[in-house]
Each structure stands twice: as C-alpha cells, then as structure tokens.
Amino acid sequence: MSKSKEKAIPIGNAIESIDISKTYISGEVKVQALKNMNFEVKNGERLVILGPSGSGKTTLLNLLGGITSPDEKKGSLNIFGKTIHNYNQKQLTDYRRERIGFIFQFFNLFPALNALDNVIIGIDLLKKKLKSDLNSLEIATDYLEKVGLADRIFHYPSQLSGGEQQRVAIARALAKIPFVGRNFLLLCDEPTGNLDTETSDKILDLIIKLNETEGITCILVTHNLHIAEKFATSIIHLRDGLIEN
Question: For every one of its 245 residues, what pLDDT tens digit does the chain have, with 9 covering 90 and above?
C-alpha cells in the first residue's frame, strides 16, 4: 500500500534565475522571447507561470526543463545548485532524464502499451543508466496506485478516459523519484487543457497532494486564473517576455 506521510522538503532554492534571456533567430529576424528573467523558486513550492498566449510561458518552461538553452554569455540559471545553462547536450539529456518530469496538455501515452507498461518504459532507461536495483514493476504499480488507478493498470489508453490518461502521465513523470530523490521538478504545461472543469479540478487536487506527499517542486503553466489561484503557492505573471510587477 502507498504511504501518504509527507516527506521532508530539502531546504533552499530549487531554481535561481538571474538575468536569463532567450532570443530566437530566423534569418535576419530576432525575436526576444524572454528578457532578463530574475526569480527564485523554493524547494517544494508550487509556482504558476501565468500569462496570455505568446507571453513566453512555454519558452520559460522549456528552459527549466532543459529542452532549450538560454542566450549564451549572459545571466545564470541554477537548478538544485547546478548551473545548467552551461550544460552540453549530453548533460542536458541526463538532467532531463534524472531531474525532470513533464506533464503536457496532450497525454503522450504509447497506444500499444497498457497503463503499467507506459509507466515502466519511462523509468527503465533511468534504472539502467543509474545501475539501480530498484524494481521497476513495483514502483510503476505503486505510482499508479497513488494516482488512483490501481484497478486500471492493465487498461490501454483507448480504454481510459481523458482524466485517467492524464493520471497515467502523472504516474509516469513521478515514478522517477525513487531513483533520483526529491531534488526533482515536475513541469506541467497546461496539464488540464483538454479536460472538463470537474476532471480538471480533480487532476489539480491530485498534483497538489503529490507535491505535498512526495516533497517535490512543481511548475505549472496556464493562462487560466482559476487554475492559478487553486494551485499556486506563488505566481509569476508574464507579458511579452517580461515578468510583470
């Protein structure tokens, strides 16, 4: 059975962004998507990045997730005490694999795999790299139980509702934690965008519960004020690549 006891949260900042910018270049056109970003996120915090379309929300999430890199020779992006903006591609791959869990608006499950195997496939590569003796089957089963899918683990995505598929995606993201510890970022990009209001609220409640019981740091991107107010312990408002006061 899963234990619901809250875990101790590491002291200090999970994220420190100092004068971070991101510029995209297409031919002779330069678009500065983010401009001199300065903010901190404490360990265990639930930060919401709020703003309209085109404000830079997803770009910022991609920087935190190591999907893209900030502009060179300017600023500093430190996550769990590591300066990731200087990482090469191999280091970024390892960082994404070991420190990041992604939850997207679209569930990105493998249709030919059942819920259990969708979670296992997400952690087996990590287990192999870390030469871990932990049991992937037991961990995957435990996290599917934590998200309320103990009786659906052998169901395929086509047999699951939208809310259930998102729960599988959450379990897959968090099942890395036993391998890597609580210095872990859960990055959520409009995770309830394809769900009705009732299901959306249940998914947010679930992520909040797991944030508290697992002791991890959560970053959620949305343009929905209701979601921000329900979820956040702190909020960053973005507009045109800038943090608004």
Answer: 344 444 544 558 999 999 999 999 988 899 999 999 999 999 999 999 999 988 999 999 999 999 988 998 788 999 999 998 888 889 999 999 899 999 988 888 999 999 999 999 989 988 988 899 999 999 999 999 999 999 999 999 999 999 999 999 999 999 999 998 888 999 999 988 888 888 889 899 989 998 998 889 999 999 899 999 999 999 999 999 999 86
What whole-number distance in Å separates Cα of residue 41 and Cα of residue 187? 13
Enter the tokens of residue 241. Answer: 């690549």
Q: How many CB atoms lie within 10 A of CB 198?
A: 9
| Residues spanned by the domain of 219 | 13-243
Structure token pair of residue 226: 């209701």
Please report the beta strands in the chain, taking only residues with DSSP state E, as ranges in sequence order: 13-26, 29-42, 46-50, 76-79, 82-83, 100-104, 185-189, 217-222, 234-239, 242-243
Using an 8 Å Cβ cutoff, are 60 and 47 in contact? no
CATH (domain of 98): 3.40.50.300
In a domain, 29, yes or no: yes
The number of distinct structural domains making up the chain is 1
- 127 in a structural domain: yes
Picking from 202, 193, 194, the residue whose alpha carbon sits closest to that of residue 223 is 193
State if pTM tops 0.85: yes
In whole angstroms, what is the distance from residue 159 CA to residue 132 CA? 32
Please say whether the beta carbons of 242 and 53 come within 8 A. Answer: no
Residue 109 is classified by DSSP as -
Is 94 within the bounds of a domain?
A: yes
7 within some domain: no
